[in-house]
Q: What sequence folds into this?
């Protein structure tokens, strides 16, 4: 397959997915038990609202129009970057998300760094020393990492490093020292999955003949392994990493609560507890878009990592 | 990772100079390499000794499984697979297996280089070709400064100017090894190179360190004859220019005759015979060398049985007394089974055999020496088949194979057949109208008569395989018509069951063409199953087929990886003839096999043809094979038929330059032994 048609195809499918996502998220609003206007007003006013108040609220939020029209209005706003306003304050949802986003991105990025920094050397060592004590230890570590719930590890780390040793702050956000524990917590779980993947992928590659070519040049084993072998072993790892980014967002929600970081996850959970549907809707839509875009990027980087992917249908 | 103590030059462990004062560049002394298997250690290399002097070209020959590659890999200290358990290898006076990692790297970067067999495996698919050659140059220039970040081109850590310089020199090297437009191709990735080009790039990588010794492990085996000839030529020129010693591992005696000064004949991990190429090939002393030479199709009359070496290279498991060749040796006597035969020094080499054979026995004690290549068991077989040969020969002369100019309708006919492919090109290229279109087959008209063998020859890329795919219906022609028995061949999907029956196919590499997850019986039964045969009938037929290709019942439950290349190709043949086809397309059926096994498979194909009245379309780049088996030959070049005619005529007096070039390219023993 050529690059250009591939890109067109890939963008096309991404758009279809996004359209679907927008319909579903919009539908979220109708999952509200009872009449949303009534529920919201009663919460805002802390008493049973009158008919007139409900009517006024509906008119204000455009809830009296036919549904497709409401959807069209909403979508136009969304495309303009306007996700509506929160029920409880007049803050725009876009602004809420943009405020919370840096903290979540920071956490996600730091976790990926932690995950890769752990997984790549461990996976490589494990594969190179296959069957030895090193290999068994790393596999056991990976097993523990995979089985351990994130929040539990989070509390454990807080207990040891914050409460007992006092090396890092217990919670909060804003400084690097506050980032360490949450990033390690989230990164470890991901590292466990990636370590196994790096190991098996390296094992596949280590038998390849081109490594002997590299050795026979007189290259150091370290370069043979970390340049020639790893580069090829990374192709499947990157693909899985892309899929893992979705899981990372999931994890971030939990971790932000454990460590009291006012990020996207906290925002979402607060909104859910407050039945602040437009905010839930906005965050859902935003994360879905982010997910689709990351997957697209991962796909493209995959084609960069493995030059053969560009070829496809060679007639000879 | 290896941490080496900071030592000056060679480490203390290498301080020992070689014990002998010889000028040998490479000295292998009683080398022993073992593989661990479930059944115990296998002695892959069992006491091999030989040496290579500066500037000399030495060939190591033998069947596969004789320990050739293992020997080569052990010399440069590549351990996998196997473990060196005894003996020494000295390169330039340095003991390779006792040297520190650092010294060994120094040797590889400076003194010895290696070219590997499989062009698909030699180059790293993730880096462009220039990078891989440049890297080799860089190692050679600064063997001690190998920093990972530098080699990863990490910004700030890597010197851009150095790399630019190395890439420039890589382009020069690519030109030297015969890669056209090197400046354009230096950025290409390995998958954009043909097999021949990849081998050249592999050679460039090896030459980058300007080695004193080049070890080449079957460097041309995977290539077609013309490319092979060009590459060998290049090899010879470059090693001569640089006065480089070469150790060439090959199973092709023609290649040895072409470029080697001396030969080492290896069997079952032991050196059987050494000596100057001319002498060894013209007057082999050792029964194994003789047998190897006999197996060549060029020595046998056309369409007649080729002499073979019965049996297989033994697994060297556990202690085995006696000569490893004894079970297959025509000159064997009882004493051969008892003790290891001694190695005798002759004036120009060594022979490892019993004294009587080495120094010539008087003729009257059976004179097995003179009847080499035809052992007792084999002679018996030979006798029976000779009678059938003569029988068929007379039958043949009574009713000669139908010729295309006869009135009889041909089995297959192609009329003005062309096949074009749209080549993969970017959108931009398509918009600009510079899209490339590959004319794989161009206006080909030919006929195959029932019962004949048509040989299809040409360089790789000449359209041979496409033409075969058109005949089998795997491809549909862009224009023109392909007819089978008068009916047009449709696309594979639309054909009736009857036409599917009529054509069988045997591919070059049975390991990739047969399903590795099915036992042999099922592999063979698959087409029968697809054709709806019921159980009992299917089982009977499989038994019958196994017998006809010379395999026994005990093979039925084995899986493909448990069989040798020759046995697998027999399975592939059995499968191809399962539905009693009239035409069998043989796509390089013996190219992946050793000479001795080649001979046996060819004999089988000839027998089957006589028994089942098969028609063969044989595609091969090995002209010896084509010459031996085919009635007529068609020569393809760039998708066009450039010459066609009776085999003897075409190959003896080629009228087209392309044919002449093909004939010329075949490495032959006869050239050099004169
Ligand atoms: S020693 Fe005996 S069995 Fe071995 S090659 Fe010589 S004659 Fe044959």
A:
């Amino acid at each position: 397959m050529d690059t250009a048609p591939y890109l067109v195809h890939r963008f096309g499918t991404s758009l279809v997915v996004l359209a679907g996502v927008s319909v579903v998220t919009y539908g979220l609003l109708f999952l509200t038990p009872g009449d949303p206007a009534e529920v919201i007003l009663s919460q805002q006013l802390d008493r049973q609202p009158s008919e007139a108040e409900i009517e006024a609220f509906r008119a204000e939020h455009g809830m009296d129009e036919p549904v497709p029209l409401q959807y069209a209005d909403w979508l136009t706003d969304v495309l303009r970057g306007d996700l509506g306003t929160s029920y409880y304050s007049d803050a725009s949802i876009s602004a809420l998300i943009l405020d919370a986003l840096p903290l979540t991105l920071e956490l996600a990025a730091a976790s990926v760094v932690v995950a890769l920094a752990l997984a790549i050397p461990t996976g490589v060592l494990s594969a190179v020393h296959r069957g030895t004590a090193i290999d068994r230890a790393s596999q056991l570590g990976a097993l523990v990492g995979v089985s351990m719930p994130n929040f539990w590890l989070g509390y454990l780390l807080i207990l040891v490093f914050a409460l007992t040793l006092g090396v890092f702050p217990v919670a909060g956000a804003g400084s690097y020292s506050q980032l360490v524990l949450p990033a390690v917590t989230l990164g470890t779980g991901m590292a466990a999955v990636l370590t196994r993947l790096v190991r098996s992928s390296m094992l596949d590659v280590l038998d390849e003949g081109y490594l002997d070519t590299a050795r026979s040049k007189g290259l150091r084993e370290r370069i043979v392994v970390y340049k020639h072998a790893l580069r090829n072993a990374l192709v499947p790892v990157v693909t899985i990493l892309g899929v893992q980014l979705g899981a990372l967002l999931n994890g971030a929600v939990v971790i932000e609560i454990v460590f009291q970081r006012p990020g996207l996850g906290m925002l979402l959970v607060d909104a859910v507890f407050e039945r602040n549907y437009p905010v839930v809707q906005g965050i859902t839509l935003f994360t879905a878009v982010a997910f689709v875009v990351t997957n697209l990027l991962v796909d493209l980087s995959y084609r960069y990592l493995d030059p053969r992917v560009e070829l496809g249908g060679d007639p000879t | 990772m290896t941490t080496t103590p900071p030592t000056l030059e060679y480490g203390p462990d290498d301080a020992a100079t070689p014990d002998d004062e010889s000028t040998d560049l490479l000295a292998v002394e009683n080398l022993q390499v073992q593989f661990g298997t479930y059944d115990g250690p296998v002695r892959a290399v069992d006491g091999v000794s030989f040496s290579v002097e500066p500037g000399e070209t030495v060939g190591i020959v033998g069947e596969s499984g004789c320990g050739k590659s293992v020997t080569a890999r052990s010399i440069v200290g590549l351990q996998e697979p196997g473990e060196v358990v005894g003996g020494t290898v000295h390169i330039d006076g340095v003991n390779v297996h006792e040297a520190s990692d650092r010294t060994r790297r120094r040797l590889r970067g400076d003194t010895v280089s290696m070219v590997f067999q499989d062009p698909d495996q030699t180059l790293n698919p993730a880096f462009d070709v220039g990078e891989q050659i440049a890297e080799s140059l860089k190692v050679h220039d600064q063997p001690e400064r190998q920093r990972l970040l530098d080699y990863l081109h990490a910004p700030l850590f890597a010197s851009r100017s150095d790399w630019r310089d190395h890439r420039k020199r890589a382009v020069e090297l690519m030109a030297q090894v015969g890669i056209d437009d090197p400046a354009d191709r230096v950025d290409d990735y390995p998958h954009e190179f043909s097999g021949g080009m990849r081998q050249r790039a592999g050679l460039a990588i090896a030459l980058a360190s300007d080695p004193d010794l080049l070890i080449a492990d079957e460097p041309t085996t995977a290539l077609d004859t013309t490319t092979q000839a060009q590459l060998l030529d290049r090899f010879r020129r470059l090693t001569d220019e640089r006065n480089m010693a070469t150790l060439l591992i090959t199973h092709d005696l023609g290649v040895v005759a072409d470029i080697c000064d001396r030969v080492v004949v290896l069997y079952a991990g032991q050196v059987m015979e050494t000596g100057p190429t001319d002498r060894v090939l013209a007057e082999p002393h050792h029964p194994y060398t003789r047998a190897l030479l006999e197996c060549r199709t060029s020595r046998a009359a056309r369409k007649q049985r080729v002499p073979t070496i019965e049996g297989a290279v033994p697994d060297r498991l556990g202690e085995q007394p006696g000569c490893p060749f004894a079970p297959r040796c025509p000159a064997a006597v009882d004493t051969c089974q008892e003790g290891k035969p001694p190695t005798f020094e002759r004036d120009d080499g060594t022979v490892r055999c019993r004294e009587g054979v080495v120094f010539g026995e008087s003729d009257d004690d059976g004179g097995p020496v003179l009847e080499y290549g035809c052992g007792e068991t084999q002679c018996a077989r030979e006798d029976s088949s000779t009678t059938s040969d003569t029988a068929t020969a007379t039958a043949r002369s009574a009713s000669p194979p139908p010729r295309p100019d006869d009135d009889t309708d041909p089995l297959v006919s192609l009329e003005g057949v062309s096949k074009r492919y749209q080549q993969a090109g970017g959108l931009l290229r398509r918009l600009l109208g510079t899209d490339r279109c590959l004319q794989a087959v161009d206006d080909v008209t030919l006929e195959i008569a029932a019962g004949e063998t048509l040989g299809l020859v040409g360089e790789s890329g000449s359209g041979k395989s496409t033409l075969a795919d058109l005949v089998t219906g795997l491809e549909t022609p862009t224009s023109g018509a392909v007819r089978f028995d008068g009916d047009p061949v449709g696309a594979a999907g639309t054909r009736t069951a009857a036409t599917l029956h009529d054509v069988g196919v045997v591919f070059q590499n049975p390991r990739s063409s047969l399903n590795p997850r099915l036992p042999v019986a099922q592999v063979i039964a698959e087409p029968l199953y697809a054709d709806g045969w019921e159980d009992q009938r299917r089982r009977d037929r499989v038994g019958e087929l196994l017998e006809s290709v010379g395999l026994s019942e005990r093979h039925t439950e084995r899986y493909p990886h448990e069989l040798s290349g020759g046995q697998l190709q027999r399975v592939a043949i059995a499968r191809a003839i399962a539905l009693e086809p009239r035409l069998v397309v043989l796509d390089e059926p013996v190219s992946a096999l050793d000479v001795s096994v080649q001979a046996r498979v060819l004999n089988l194909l000839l027998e089957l043809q006589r028994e089942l009245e098969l028609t063969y379309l044989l595609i091969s780049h090995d002209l010896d094979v084509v010459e031996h088996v085919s009635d007529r030959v068609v020569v393809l070049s760039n998708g066009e038929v450039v010459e066609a005619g009776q085999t003897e005529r075409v190959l003896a007096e080629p009228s087209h330059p392309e044919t002449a070039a093909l004939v010329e390219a075949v490495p032959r023993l006869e050239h050099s032994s004169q």
